[in-house]
Amino acid sequence: MQYENILKKLKTLSNPRAVEGMARFGINPKSTYGVSVPNLRKMAKEIGRDHPLAQQLWDSGIHEARILASMIDDPNQVTKKQMDLWIKDFDSWDVCDQCCMNLFDKTPMAWEKAVEWTKHQKEFERRRKVKANRYGNIKVGPWDGRTGERWAI
Protein backbone atom coordinates (compact mmCIF):
# COMPACT_ATOMS: atom_id res chain seq x y z
CA MET A 1 0.00 0.00 0.00
CA GLN A 2 1.37 3.41 -0.95
CA TYR A 3 1.87 6.29 1.51
CA GLU A 4 -0.77 8.51 -0.16
CA ASN A 5 -3.31 5.67 -0.17
CA ILE A 6 -2.74 5.04 3.52
CA LEU A 7 -3.37 8.69 4.38
CA LYS A 8 -6.55 8.63 2.28
CA LYS A 9 -7.73 5.48 4.05
CA LEU A 10 -7.06 7.02 7.45
CA LYS A 11 -9.18 10.03 6.47
CA THR A 12 -11.94 7.71 5.24
CA LEU A 13 -11.93 5.89 8.58
CA SER A 14 -11.95 9.14 10.57
CA ASN A 15 -14.47 9.55 13.36
CA PRO A 16 -14.98 13.10 14.72
CA ARG A 17 -16.83 11.78 17.79
CA ALA A 18 -13.86 9.60 18.63
CA VAL A 19 -11.57 12.64 18.33
CA GLU A 20 -13.74 14.45 20.90
CA GLY A 21 -13.53 11.44 23.21
CA MET A 22 -9.78 11.22 22.79
CA ALA A 23 -9.43 14.88 23.76
CA ARG A 24 -11.19 14.09 27.06
CA PHE A 25 -8.43 11.58 27.78
CA GLY A 26 -5.65 14.09 27.16
CA ILE A 27 -4.93 13.22 23.54
CA ASN A 28 -4.25 16.33 21.48
CA PRO A 29 -7.00 16.53 18.83
CA LYS A 30 -4.68 18.36 16.40
CA SER A 31 -3.74 16.03 13.51
CA THR A 32 -5.96 13.29 14.92
CA TYR A 33 -8.58 11.44 12.87
CA GLY A 34 -10.15 9.22 15.53
CA VAL A 35 -9.36 5.92 13.80
CA SER A 36 -9.73 2.94 16.15
CA VAL A 37 -6.77 0.75 17.07
CA PRO A 38 -8.50 -2.37 15.65
CA ASN A 39 -8.77 -0.58 12.28
CA LEU A 40 -5.10 0.40 12.51
CA ARG A 41 -4.14 -3.20 13.30
CA LYS A 42 -6.13 -4.41 10.30
CA MET A 43 -4.31 -1.91 8.08
CA ALA A 44 -0.95 -2.96 9.54
CA LYS A 45 -1.70 -6.58 8.73
CA GLU A 46 -2.50 -5.64 5.12
CA ILE A 47 0.68 -3.54 4.79
CA GLY A 48 3.14 -5.87 6.53
CA ARG A 49 6.61 -4.84 7.72
CA ASP A 50 7.94 -1.81 5.90
CA HIS A 51 10.65 0.29 7.54
CA PRO A 52 10.84 3.10 4.93
CA LEU A 53 7.05 3.47 4.87
CA ALA A 54 6.98 3.55 8.68
CA GLN A 55 9.43 6.47 8.59
CA GLN A 56 7.20 8.34 6.13
CA LEU A 57 4.10 7.74 8.23
CA TRP A 58 5.87 8.91 11.38
CA ASP A 59 7.09 12.07 9.66
CA SER A 60 3.51 12.94 8.61
CA GLY A 61 2.80 14.04 12.18
CA ILE A 62 -0.67 12.46 12.01
CA HIS A 63 -1.59 10.78 15.27
CA GLU A 64 -2.92 7.53 13.80
CA ALA A 65 -0.21 7.40 11.13
CA ARG A 66 2.37 7.39 13.91
CA ILE A 67 0.65 4.53 15.70
CA LEU A 68 0.42 2.65 12.39
CA ALA A 69 4.13 3.35 11.80
CA SER A 70 4.93 1.62 15.09
CA MET A 71 2.92 -1.40 13.94
CA ILE A 72 4.60 -1.84 10.55
CA ASP A 73 8.20 -0.87 11.29
CA ASP A 74 10.77 -3.66 11.45
CA PRO A 75 12.33 -3.82 14.94
CA ASN A 76 15.56 -5.18 13.46
CA GLN A 77 15.97 -2.07 11.29
CA VAL A 78 15.24 0.45 14.04
CA THR A 79 18.28 2.41 15.17
CA LYS A 80 19.07 4.07 18.48
CA LYS A 81 18.93 7.41 16.69
CA GLN A 82 15.43 6.66 15.38
CA MET A 83 14.24 5.72 18.86
CA ASP A 84 15.64 8.95 20.30
CA LEU A 85 14.03 11.03 17.55
CA TRP A 86 10.66 9.33 17.87
CA ILE A 87 10.40 9.72 21.64
CA LYS A 88 10.95 13.45 21.22
CA ASP A 89 7.82 13.45 19.05
CA PHE A 90 5.64 11.67 21.63
CA ASP A 91 2.81 14.06 22.44
CA SER A 92 0.29 11.70 24.00
CA TRP A 93 0.25 8.67 26.22
CA ASP A 94 -1.33 6.42 23.59
CA VAL A 95 1.31 7.08 20.92
CA CYS A 96 3.97 6.46 23.57
CA ASP A 97 2.36 3.22 24.75
CA GLN A 98 1.63 1.88 21.28
CA CYS A 99 5.09 2.70 19.99
CA CYS A 100 6.69 0.99 22.96
CA MET A 101 4.53 -2.13 22.86
CA ASN A 102 4.46 -2.52 19.08
CA LEU A 103 8.04 -1.62 18.26
CA PHE A 104 10.60 -0.37 20.77
CA ASP A 105 10.26 -3.32 23.16
CA LYS A 106 11.01 -5.69 20.28
CA THR A 107 14.29 -4.03 19.31
CA PRO A 108 17.67 -5.48 20.33
CA MET A 109 18.47 -2.31 22.29
CA ALA A 110 15.20 -2.11 24.26
CA TRP A 111 16.78 -2.59 27.69
CA GLU A 112 19.70 -0.26 27.01
CA LYS A 113 17.38 2.56 25.89
CA ALA A 114 14.93 1.97 28.75
CA VAL A 115 17.72 2.40 31.30
CA GLU A 116 18.98 5.51 29.50
CA TRP A 117 15.51 7.06 29.38
CA THR A 118 14.96 6.66 33.14
CA LYS A 119 17.31 9.62 33.52
CA HIS A 120 15.25 11.85 31.24
CA GLN A 121 12.92 14.43 32.71
CA LYS A 122 10.32 14.61 29.93
CA GLU A 123 7.12 12.76 30.80
CA PHE A 124 6.83 10.50 27.76
CA GLU A 125 10.52 9.65 27.70
CA ARG A 126 10.27 8.35 31.26
CA ARG A 127 6.88 6.71 30.56
CA ARG A 128 8.48 4.70 27.75
CA LYS A 129 10.67 2.91 30.28
CA VAL A 130 7.74 2.21 32.57
CA LYS A 131 5.63 0.83 29.71
CA ALA A 132 8.40 -1.50 28.59
CA ASN A 133 8.64 -2.82 32.09
CA ARG A 134 4.88 -3.09 32.68
CA TYR A 135 4.20 -5.28 29.68
CA GLY A 136 6.94 -7.66 30.70
CA ASN A 137 8.92 -7.22 27.51
CA ILE A 138 11.96 -6.34 29.54
CA LYS A 139 12.46 -8.93 32.26
CA VAL A 140 13.83 -7.30 35.36
CA GLY A 141 13.19 -7.83 39.02
CA PRO A 142 10.55 -10.06 40.58
CA TRP A 143 6.89 -10.15 39.54
CA ASP A 144 4.66 -8.23 41.95
CA GLY A 145 1.33 -10.08 42.12
CA ARG A 146 -0.35 -7.15 43.88
CA THR A 147 0.07 -4.77 40.95
CA GLY A 148 0.65 -7.18 38.09
CA GLU A 149 3.86 -5.38 37.20
CA ARG A 150 7.56 -6.10 37.17
CA TRP A 151 9.78 -3.78 39.12
CA ALA A 152 12.89 -2.24 37.63
CA ILE A 153 16.01 -0.67 39.03
UniProtKB/TrEMBL annotation:
SUPFAM superfamilies, A to Z: ARM repeat (SSF48371)
Q: Record's Pfam families? A: DNA_alkylation (PF08713)
Q: Which InterPro entries match?
A: ARM-type_fold (IPR016024), DNA_alkylation (IPR014825)
Question: Which protein, by its recorded name, is this?
Answer: DNA alkylation repair enzyme
Which organism is the protein's source? marine sediment metagenome
